[in-house]
Amino acid sequence: MRHPFNLGVAAGEATGLLYALRHGYARALRMDGDGQHDPQSVPALLKALDEGAELVVGSRFAGVASFQSTWVRRLGSRFLSHLLSSLCRQRITDPTSGFRGFGPRAVRFFSTHFPHDYPEPESVLMASRQQLPIVEVPVKMRSRRAGVSSLTPWRSAFYMAKVSFALLMERFRTV
After folding, report:
1. Per the database record, which ranges form the Glycosyltransferase 2-like domain (predicted)?
2. One digit per residue, pLDDT tens: the chain, 175 residues?
3. Pair 137, 53: CB distance under 8 Å
4. Where are the alpha helices (DSSP H) in the chain?
């Protein structure tokens, strides 16, 4: 699948889920293209889907946390984790992980209703609001193998503030 130009992560995810829906797939997986997601963790995501989860998040921080990032990103992730956990009334340890599994209801929902700005944390809140069972599974993350992050320490702090505002506003959105 290709878009005519870069439409962002959210549009790419929605296109993939729409493809899965139209071709009769019962579930779908999303992995980032920078090599951080270890394919050996895929069975853990599939197992959680088989056990009834609709949104499975591969968490760097559930279980034994071996992944390290900058202190600014860790602080921001911890803050977003607490905010999202409070809004969802469920512990969310890795709100920005893009390593995901989608069950049939989640495939249907997110193929037509997708977050535009911050797909990882917003989609967790959207799934919670739709009463889709959310499960986090511990996964191994590798160092980025390709490309560089666009998030500098200042951009990380700004991102955290914008995401926090978006999550608070998501509570009032009708879906």
Report:
1. 2-102
2. 788 988 888 888 889 999 999 999 999 999 887 778 888 999 999 999 999 999 999 998 877 655 566 666 677 788 899 999 999 999 999 988 999 999 999 999 998 888 777 889 999 999 999 999 999 999 987 765 655 566 666 777 777 788 888 888 877 776 6
3. no
4. 9-22, 42-50, 71-88, 104-112, 119-129, 153-170
What are the boundaries of each domain within the chain? 9-142+151-170
Q: What distance in Å separates the CA atoms of residue 4 and residue 161, rounded to the nearest whole number?
A: 31
pTM of the model: 0.84
Q: How far apart, in Å, are the Cα atoms of 5 and each of 15, 61, 76, 98, 113?
A: 13, 34, 30, 21, 21
